[in-house]
Design a protein that fits this description.
5-stranded antiparallel beta sheet, alpha/beta, 3 domains, Beta-Lactamase, Rossmann fold, 382 residues, 17% strand, 11 helices
């Protein structure tokens, strides 16, 4: 019942110019819920042929008129549209013209036709009409699916165009290589790196775009990428004019729906300036490190000199103190001996022991100080 109330393809156009056949058929179809309309001739059918028409029902008598405009209207249908026809023919014994001829005439401009012989029962007519209407509804379903598919294709094309625009705007080499090592996509940067139009890069094999030496440097990475391993490497990639260039290259494997690697994406960027900057930074760090080391060495030397100076000052102070102590002790010895000499010269022998003891005591104190100095010089416990 859905085809009778559909928004499109729900109408039945009837052309039956003999007697009241058209009126009878329209009435019967309307009683069954169809939107049936009678037309005077094939030209009127051509005028009314639009997306609301689901079936054209006509008798062989209607085919005696001109079919030129109807042929043109049918031919002007969209590619998805093929409105069905139902042709009611008379039995050969009752026909005033050849039914086969009318059938052949109809099939000249449509391949979607049902031929029914009269007389026929209402059930046969309704069955043929319902079948034709369902066929027409499938055409509209196909149209909608085609429109969705076309919209999807347009969206995909727009997305691909946008992706191409973004990829071409980047200074990075971007490409896809299949399992045969052929380029299937390459962005605009390839033109400046290879000196070839992108159209010549796509379809070319990798080994055809590089020298044997350059390809040999990439062969292992390509094999690993096709085995499913992401690859990163840095290689020399000279400019077309021979100037040095370093490139960071990444191979990222791509897998199909089954999980198998069907190729890999390439991303390559010029890292020459980056490496030069790194080298310059490394050199400056080395220079600064050397300067710091020299400064540390000079500071260490200065600290050592300062410690030596402080040590010598301490030694000087120690020496002065020792000399003073020795001088006091020697003064005691010399003084005692000088008194004893004068007493002996005067013939006075009394009280000599006291002066001898004083000289001996001073000499012993001097000996004790010497022992302590020797112990200090040998790092003995004082």
């Amino acid at each position: 019942m859905g085809h009778r109330t559909a928004t499109e393809g729900h109408r039945v156009l009837v052309v039956a110019p003999f007697g009241r056949d058209a009126e009878s058929v329209v009435r019967l179809l309307r009683e069954q819920g169809y939107d049936a309309q009678a037309c005077a001739d094939l030209d009127q059918i051509a005028e009314r042929l639009d997306e609301h028409v689901g079936v054209i029902l006509l008798t062989q008598e209607a085919m005696r008129g001109s079919t030129v405009r109807l042929r043109a209207a049918v031919a002007a249908q969209p590619a998805w549209s093929d409105v069905p026809f139902i042709l009611l023919t008379a039995r050969p014994s009752n026909a005033r013209g050849s039914a086969d001829a009318f059938r052949a005439q109809l099939l000249e401009f449509t391949g979607n036709a049902i031929v029914l012989e009269r007389p026929l029962g209402l059930s046969s007519l309704l069955s043929a009409t319902a079948s034709a209407m369902r066929s027409r509804q499938r055409q509209f379903d196909l149209r909608d699916r085609l429109a969705e598919l076309e919209a999807g294709r347009a969206a995909l094309a727009a997305s691909e165009a946008e992706l191409r625009t973004v990829a071409d705007a980047l200074p990075t080499l971007i490409a896809f290589i299949d399992r045969d090592e052929r380029y299937r996509f390459a962005n605009l940067a390839y033109e400046s790196w290879f000196g070839l139009p992108v159209a010549e890069v796509v379809g070319a094999r990798v080994r055809d775009l590089f020298t044997a030496e350059a390809y040999a440097m990439r062969a292992d990475g390509i094999a690993r990428a096709l085995a499913g391993e992401p690859v990163r490497m840095e290689l020399p990639w000279p400019h077309l004019d021979g100037r040095h260039r370093d490139a960071e290259i990444r191979y990222l494997p791509r897998r199909d729906a089954a999980g198998d690697v069907d190729g890999f994406h390439i991303f390559a960027i010029d890292v020459t300036e980056h490496k030069l900057t790194e080298k310059l930074l490394s050199d400056r760090v080395a220079e600064r490190t050397a300067a710091l080391e020299a400064e540390m060495a000079a500071r260490t030397e200065a600290e050592a000199a300062l410690r030596q100076s402080q040590k010598m000052e301490a030694v000087g102070q120690l020496t002065g103190g020792i000399a003073h102590d020795f001088n006091n002790m020697l003064t005691g010895v010399i003084g005692a001996m000088d008194i004893m000499r004068r007493r002996l010269a005067a013939g006075r022998y009394d009280d000599l022991d006291r002066f001898m003891d004083a000289a001996s005591s001073s000499a012993q104190r001097a000996a004790a100080l010497t022992a302590r100095l020797l112990a200090f010089s040998r790092r003995q416990s004082l």
